[in-house]
Design brief:
Elements lengths: L16 H10 L3 H11 L14 E11 L18 E10 L13 E8 L5 E7 L9 H14 L14 H20 L1 H19 L8 E3 L2 E3 L2 E9 L15 H12 L2 E9 L21 E8 L7 H11 L2 H4 L6 E3 L6 E6 L13 E5 L1
Antiparallel strand pairs: 1-2, 1-9, 2-3, 3-4, 4-5, 5-7, 6-7, 7-8, 8-9, 10-11, 11-12
């Protein structure tokens, strides 16, 4: 973004060819980081997305748009007053290597819908109102450190189980050292402090039913964020020795018991001081947010065959099926053939790694 300090006018970044080439060069090492992550963690079978690969829950989701909408949103994409959209949704943990859900981590939400003219619209959020870093170059350093620390554990005791805290400490130590090598000690220390502030609340959470914030998007010609807010605040410390999949199990029981509902609020850009677009690690003021709809994960038995098919079709990547690009296998429950293919990207972006998707044939 190109807003200047205290500027109240939204001035989005419109990249030209030179900008795209520069950004492509900045992120060109992602495939190398994926390979390092693969080499450093024996539980991974092939390169795949590093973040938010592991799913807590996935199912059908319904977006009920509010009847009374801000003028700037009315008629834009999904935002037709009173409209209802059916789509898919998933909740995930952030770490891209096998781990327990008691670790400090990001939680993520993704819901996807289609406009009447066939345009896909995704809402992507994490359970913190700020970004991990202020720019993509610093985030590349975080990804680098993630790959470098993937192999760290305490010798002879394994990666998961009773000694998970010891292995977590080993990984975080190596992560900090790798980040310092990459960014320098001072900047690495600041980044580590911010990441710890972001991820520690998950370790003290009893449920994934909590608040999520999207990144900055342009809607109706202005900068915006959206936030998913539970209709009831029910998150609390998880108690003594929660299970390794306690967030997944809690959500499964929650959705089995009834609809899981969020309110969706729109947070419009005000000024660089109040709603920063450069200092992404600073939170936006939200006193002016406006309710624009409700998001519902309908009551569902997530162990049912129908729910599993929803989750598998739209939530899981090839890693979950242990498939390499071009490989196929048979779904054990339905007999359907599943193929791993490279997801189409238009236009092809320089330096952007391929993304693999599991699809039913």
């Amino acid at each position: 973004m190109k807003n200047i300090d205290n500027e109240s006018q939204w001035c989005p970044f419109r990249p030209d060819a030179a900008d795209l080439e520069r950004i492509g060069e900045d992120v060109a090492e992602i495939p190398d980081i994926q390979q390092k992550l693969l080499a450093n963690n024996g539980d991974l079978k092939f390169p795949d997305r590093v973040a938010h690969q592991y799913q807590i829950a996935g199912s059908r989701v319904v977006f009920q748009v509010a009847n009374d909408l801000p003028e700037i949103l009315r008629g834009v994409g999904l935002f037709q007053p009173g409209a209802q959209h059916c789509g898919v949704g998933r909740l995930s943990t952030g770490l891209g290597t096998p781990h327990v859900e008691t670790n400090p981590d990001f939680l993520g939400i993704m819901v996807a819908f289609q406009t009447p003219d066939g345009q896909r619209v995704d809402f992507l959020g994490i359970n913190n109102p700020t970004a991990p870093t202020d720019d993509h170059r610093a985030f590349m350093s975080v990804l680098y450190a993630t790959g470098a620390s993937a192999a760290a554990d305490v010798p002879f005791i394994g990666k998961l189980g009773a000694h998970e805290l010891a292995n977590l400490a080993a990984q975080e130590t190596e992560f900090g050292l790798a980040l310092a090598r990459r960014m320098g000690v001072i900047k690495a220390d600041k980044t580590l402090h911010h990441l710890t502030t972001q991820t520690l609340p998950t370790a003290f959470s009893s449920t994934a039913y909590q608040r999520y914030w999207t990144g900055i998007v342009e809607v109706g010609g202005t900068g915006s964020k959206f936030t998913f807010v539970p209709t009831r605040e029910e998150n609390h410390p998880p108690g003594f020795h929660p299970g390794p999949r306690h967030l997944s199990e809690e959500w499964k029981n929650r959705q089995l018991g009834g609809d899981v509902e969020f309110q969706l609020f729109w947070i419009p850009f005000l000024s660089e001081e109040k709603t920063p677009t450069k200092a992404l690690t600073q939170r936006w003021q939200e006193d002016h947010k406006q309710l624009v709809g409700r998001l519902v994960f309908p009551k569902t038995d997530l162990d049912s065959e129908d729910a599993r098919l929803w989750a598998i079709r739209y939530g899981n990547g090839c890693q979950s099926w242990q498939l390499g690009c071009g490989q196929t296998k048979q779904h054990p429950g339905t007999g359907e053939r599943i193929r791993c293919r490279e997801e189409d990207r238009l236009p092809k972006e320089p330096g952007r790694p391929r993304r693999l998707r599991a699809e039913f044939l």
